[in-house]
Amino acid sequence: MNCDKNDLLLYGVTDRSWLNGRTLYEQVEDALKGGATFIQLREKDLDADSFLKEAVEIKELCARYHVPFVINDNVEIAKKIDADGVHVGQHDMEASNVRAILGPDKIIGVSAQTVEQAVLAEKNGADYLGVGAVFHTGTKKDANSISHETVKQICEAVNIPVIAIGGISRENVMELQGTGICGIAVVSAIFAAKNITEATKELKELTQNMVQSCGANH
């Protein structure tokens, strides 16, 4: 499965912090209805059986909406359920090792905070990069902020699509204009919203405007 930069416009990362009695499945479907273009299932504390069952269900849901579906970190589950791919951080498995396990046609995303990390990830076979945190974020306690200038330098240093992540909301997304990113990854901006579908629609429109005015050439 090829990683099209248009698929990366509005990338939703799941988080069960805001379920409020609903299921993650329902929340993801709301985001897909609102136009989310990519979904990453991120589970840090779920037991393996529950994770596997949930991954299968959400993979089928994303397939219905023709939206790529990747698993955060867990290469084993991604392989087992034949997900579209996996996203790994700097402290997880190297992209080249992930590629060896998942095969040539899966999407591999890698988190990067520096130009060096970005260039290495591309060399190791990453299909796209998630770069951040671009704003202060409460979702990932250990995420260090990086400047928008660094984001721009990363976009210029690689030939694969780059998305920004970390603390992005409808209030600040336009500040990323001119960096060269092709999209954004968000957690709370979608999943903490009272109306997930409406929040997704609004954020997608803003992101489209931001990317177009970027004149992103990647």
UniProtKB/TrEMBL annotation:
<dbReference type="Pfam" id="PF02581">
    <property type="entry name" value="TMP-TENI"/>
</dbReference>
<feature type="binding site">
    <location>
        <position position="167"/>
    </location>
    <ligand>
        <name>2-[(2R,5Z)-2-carboxy-4-methylthiazol-5(2H)-ylidene]ethyl phosphate</name>
    </ligand>
</feature>
<feature type="binding site">
    <location>
        <position position="92"/>
    </location>
    <ligand>
        <name>Mg(2+)</name>
    </ligand>
</feature>
<feature type="binding site">
    <location>
        <begin position="137"/>
        <end position="139"/>
    </location>
    <ligand>
        <name>2-[(2R,5Z)-2-carboxy-4-methylthiazol-5(2H)-ylidene]ethyl phosphate</name>
    </ligand>
</feature>
<comment type="pathway">
    <text>Cofactor biosynthesis; thiamine diphosphate biosynthesis; thiamine phosphate from 4-amino-2-methyl-5-diphosphomethylpyrimidine and 4-methyl-5-(2-phosphoethyl)-thiazole: step 1/1.</text>
</comment>
<feature type="domain" description="Thiamine phosphate synthase/TenI">
    <location>
        <begin position="10"/>
        <end position="190"/>
    </location>
</feature>
<comment type="function">
    <text>Condenses 4-methyl-5-(beta-hydroxyethyl)thiazole monophosphate (THZ-P) and 2-methyl-4-amino-5-hydroxymethyl pyrimidine pyrophosphate (HMP-PP) to form thiamine monophosphate (TMP).</text>
</comment>
<dbReference type="InterPro" id="IPR036206">
    <property type="entry name" value="ThiamineP_synth_sf"/>
</dbReference>
<dbReference type="GO" id="GO:0005737">
    <property type="term" value="C:cytoplasm"/>
</dbReference>
<dbReference type="InterPro" id="IPR022998">
    <property type="entry name" value="ThiamineP_synth_TenI"/>
</dbReference>
<dbReference type="GO" id="GO:0009229">
    <property type="term" value="P:thiamine diphosphate biosynthetic process"/>
</dbReference>
<feature type="binding site">
    <location>
        <position position="72"/>
    </location>
    <ligand>
        <name>4-amino-2-methyl-5-(diphosphooxymethyl)pyrimidine</name>
    </ligand>
</feature>
<dbReference type="GO" id="GO:0000287">
    <property type="term" value="F:magnesium ion binding"/>
</dbReference>
<keyword id="KW-0479">Metal-binding</keyword>
<keyword id="KW-0784">Thiamine biosynthesis</keyword>
<comment type="similarity">
    <text>Belongs to the thiamine-phosphate synthase family.</text>
</comment>
<feature type="binding site">
    <location>
        <begin position="40"/>
        <end position="44"/>
    </location>
    <ligand>
        <name>4-amino-2-methyl-5-(diphosphooxymethyl)pyrimidine</name>
    </ligand>
</feature>
<feature type="binding site">
    <location>
        <begin position="187"/>
        <end position="188"/>
    </location>
    <ligand>
        <name>2-[(2R,5Z)-2-carboxy-4-methylthiazol-5(2H)-ylidene]ethyl phosphate</name>
    </ligand>
</feature>
<keyword id="KW-0808">Transferase</keyword>
<feature type="binding site">
    <location>
        <position position="111"/>
    </location>
    <ligand>
        <name>4-amino-2-methyl-5-(diphosphooxymethyl)pyrimidine</name>
    </ligand>
</feature>
<protein>
    <recommendedName>
        <fullName>Thiamine-phosphate synthase</fullName>
        <ecNumber>2.5.1.3</ecNumber>
    </recommendedName>
</protein>
<dbReference type="InterPro" id="IPR013785">
    <property type="entry name" value="Aldolase_TIM"/>
</dbReference>
<feature type="binding site">
    <location>
        <position position="73"/>
    </location>
    <ligand>
        <name>Mg(2+)</name>
    </ligand>
</feature>
<dbReference type="InterPro" id="IPR034291">
    <property type="entry name" value="TMP_synthase"/>
</dbReference>
<keyword id="KW-0460">Magnesium</keyword>
<dbReference type="GO" id="GO:0009228">
    <property type="term" value="P:thiamine biosynthetic process"/>
</dbReference>
<feature type="binding site">
    <location>
        <position position="140"/>
    </location>
    <ligand>
        <name>4-amino-2-methyl-5-(diphosphooxymethyl)pyrimidine</name>
    </ligand>
</feature>
<dbReference type="GO" id="GO:0004789">
    <property type="term" value="F:thiamine-phosphate diphosphorylase activity"/>
</dbReference>
